[in-house]
Specification:
Number of domains: 1
Number of helices: 2
CATH class: Alpha Beta
Strand order of the largest sheet: 3-4-5-6
Structural class: alpha+beta
CATH architecture: Roll
Strand content: 25-35%
Distance between the termini: 65 Å
Shape: elongated
Radius of gyration: 21 Å
Helix content: 10-25%
Order of helices and strands: EEHHEEEE
CATH topology: Nuclear Transport Factor 2, Chain: A
């Protein structure tokens, strides 16, 4: 009886670039383009630029911090609700409360990272909190990353 050998299907993803483990949309929704290495060929415009790996994780952390519970219809518990806390005077006790909320929110909604340290420093002169977040990413050989962001009345953004 004849047999069919389908060895070609054994390494389907062998030529695929596996350096990008995590992918997410860029938060400012920038238009991206492809990188062509062919001579005399122009770059092709893509739909929306994407962030990969640590950039995708930063987007997720930013979304957790800036989303209030109830804003995400399919997951109404998602996010950290600071409420009117950002419109009150900047104090050490509020900084501690914000740090605890960020720690719990990232621990609950971002399983790709391990939180090493969350430090929230009040900056009463500028009416903002400076957040220093140290995380470890087990998927990338437990790579340790420290990022600094600012939380104020306008929202949250990373300084990096």
């Amino acid at each position: 009886m004849p047999s069919i050998n389908l060895d070609i299907l054994t390494n389907v993803n062998a030529e695929r670039n596996n350096t990008n483990v995590y992918t997410d949309l860029t938060l400012d929704l920038a238009i991206g383009s492809t990188a062509n290495n062919q001579l005399y060929k122009e770059q092709q415009i893509l739909d929306i630029q994407a962030d990969t790996n640590l950039g995708a994780i930063y987007n997720s952390i930013s979304n957790i911090i800036t989303t209030n519970p109830g804003q995400k219809p399919l997951n109404p518990l998602f996010g950290i609700g600071f409420g009117d806390m950002l419109f009150l005077p900047v104090t050490d006790s509020r900084a501690l409360s914000i740090g605890n909320a960020i720690y719990q929110g990232i621990q609950r909604y971002e399983p790709r990272v391990t939180i090493l340290n969350v430090n929230v420093t009040p900056d009463s002169d500028n009416q903002q909190y400076i957040i220093t977040l140290s995380i470890s990413v087990p998927r990338f050989s437990s790579q340790q990353v420290t990022v600094v962001g600012v939380l104020d009345k306008a929202g949250f953004y990373f300084n990096n």
